[in-house]
Design brief:
This protein has 295 residues and is mainly alpha-helical. It contains 14 helices and no strands. The longest helix is centred in the first third of the chain and has 23 residues.
């Protein structure tokens, strides 16, 4: 019996590893097939097999989120959560992590009223189990900020985003992508309330960090330029805004490519600005390019 169990564990770890390797190679469909087969086999095992099924369910859910299929991820996460809580209790890190991912899956489907209580519960558990200043707690604050923002609760969202940024800063220092991400999140909450000056400053700080810590051509650098373009456009600073949109496109050209979905968004933003400035021929050309990419 024990030998059989050890063999099963090894086999499942190997299969799970194969799924992981395929995900990293971007071969999502093949990874899904491997993981679905592994789940079916794991369901036939006796109940006490080291939480293998929970692990593989988690991997499949992560894959579905990667594929932008949150509606498919949600039921997988619901099962994984139930099994993890039965096995290890609700305070176990794996249970908390699955709960947070389930909240995120609902958020991505714009089911905000379902997402919010799950995200609040995740935050409570992280504060209690991991502590107020843990980066996991910061991530939960960030997720709460996003779901509040999506429901138009801007002041509450801003407060949650400030908590996240404060924790990330004290944990990672200022030279970290997580800190830049939290700055960008807070800036978007401020922007929604018309607090343009502080939003611009945060986006500029985030851009400076990203240019130091990320590889040239990284999509987050391009996103920073695009966000600055939007803020400057809202302030009526057309020439500066155009410069930022064009920089976003220069950066994306070095990485994902101008014909990526992000490239389409940045090109459309540039087109919108040119249209507002009455530069119709240039605007039309940009919009055509953006539409062509999105086809």
């Amino acid at each position: 019996g024990a030998e059989h169990g050890a063999l099963d564990n090894r086999t499942f770890k190997a299969r799970s590893g194969l799924g992981d390797a395929l995900v990293r190679a971007g071969r999502f469909a093949s990874a899904g097939t491997v993981l679905l087969g592994t789940i079916e086999a794991a369901r036939r095992l006796p109940a006490d097999t080291g939480g293998i099924l929970i692990d593989v369910l988690n991997e499949l859910a992560a894959l579905r989120l990667n594929q932008r299929r949150p509606a498919d991820a949600a039921p997988i996460l619901t099962e994984a959560l139930q099994r993890a809580r039965q096995r290890w209790g609700e305070d176990a890190p794996v249970s908390i992590s699955i709960l947070g991912n389930l909240g995120h899956a609902h958020y991505l489907q714009t089911k905000y009223s379902e997402a919010e209580p799950l995200i609040i519960e995740t935050l409570k558990l992280r504060r209690r189990v991991q502590g107020e200043r843990h980066p996991g707690t910061a991530t939960a604050w960030n997720n709460l900020a996003a779901v509040l923002q999506a429901q138009g609760k801007h002041a509450e969202a801003e407060s949650a985003a400030r908590q996240a940024l404060d924790i990330y800063r004290s944990h990672y220092g200022d030279e970290h992508q997580r800190v830049a991400l939290a700055m960008g999140n807070l800036a978007s909450m401020l922007l929604a309330q018309g607090k343009l000056v502080e939003a611009e400053r945060l986006h500029r700080d985030a851009l400076a960090i990203r240019e130091r810590v990320l590889v040239p051509g990284h999509i987050e650098i391009a996103s920073s330029y695009n966000s600055l373009g939007q803020i400057l456009e809202q302030q009526g600073r057309g020439a500066s805004s155009e410069q930022m949109y064009r920089r976003a496109l220069d950066v994306v050209a070095k990485g994902a490519g101008v014909d990526s979905p992000e490239g389409a968004v940045f090109t459309a933003n540039l087109g919108g600005l040119l249209l507002n400035e009455g530069r119709l021929a240039e605007a039309e050309k940009a919009m055509r390019v953006a539409l062509e990419i999105q086809r």
